Known about the structure:
Helix content: 40-55%
Structural class: alpha/beta
Low-confidence stretches: 1-11, 347-355
CATH class of the largest domain: Alpha Beta
Strand content: 15-25%
Number of domains: 2
CATH superfamily of the largest domain: Spore Coat Polysaccharide Biosynthesis Protein SpsA, Chain A
Number of helices: 13
Largest sheet: 10 strands, mixed
Shape: globular
Radius of gyration: 20 Å
Amino acid sequence: xxxxxxxxxxxxxxxxxxxxxxxxxxxxxxxxxxxxxxxxxxxxxxxxxxxxxxxxxxxxxxxxxxxxxxxxxxxxxxxxxxxxxxxxxxxxxxxxxxxxxxxxxxxxxxxxxxxxxxxxxxxxxxxxxxxxxxxxxxxxxxxxxxxxxxxxxxxxxxxxxxxxxxxxxxxxxxxxxxxxxxxxxxxxxxxxxxxxxxxxxxxxxxxxxxxxxxxxxxxxxxxxxxxxxxxxxxxxxxxxxxxxxxxxxxxxxxxxxxxxxxxxxxxxxxxxxxxxxxxxxxxxxxxxxxxxxxxxxxxxxxxxxxxxxxxxxxxxxxxxxxxxxxxxxxxxxxxxxxxxxxxxxxxxxxxxxxx
Length: 355
């Protein structure tokens, strides 16, 4: 694996790269061109790095990646590894990144050209100021197949745009509102300092990526722009409802990783603790929903064990997660409670179009 580059006093890579895009790619020959061209579309791209991590693809993903490496020398790098899953590909990309900041972009997704200019301008300004923020948050778009109106997720109610913030400056996050991986740009040194190693051969590790490093984030900034386009609705995608039901054990595993990464109250800023409890309640509820949607009595028992496991790990964390409205709703008793949950999921899916 390529070793991380040395850094300057303020953390910028010695290569002068501002932002590294890590592109985990498994059998993505059909989509990779759209993704890479969007990442290199900035008027100035010499301080952008695009790492295409071919995760043991069976198609021509690696050949496409190498073509872009030749086309954009010094900007695009192709990395090949034996298959380790999405988490393993992200781990490889983080270790190899030479940019001061890092962002994961799945190979079937892309970024908007105008937003890319805004993001790069902000990151360059942060570096030039000598005390760059640890995290930049942007909006993202659910770009669903066949849906003309695209749902844009923003954080205007929770964060003041354009200002340097701490966790205690955060406002109220909505019931199902959280900072998804698609919204995040981390300082590379923050991710590395957190010690995060995503589980290999596991789906839904983006929950962990958007959670575990947060205690190492001291400063952040929100840029109100629709940067990331999340392509959703293609056949076989891991977030389709039937696929998530089949892989619900992996959601349970991710939940356990998140529980173990949750700090106790009083050990981190209050604003950070409140947010992490909010997010943990959401992921716990997501896992619970798909256990219920399965209509499998064995999965109903797994749901009870999931919540019991949180309580066994930390009664205080369990108490704070369990008292959230979404958590209370997901623990309604009996068949009537499960009916309400299924009905609520169908309404949410129709309104937002997230699957």
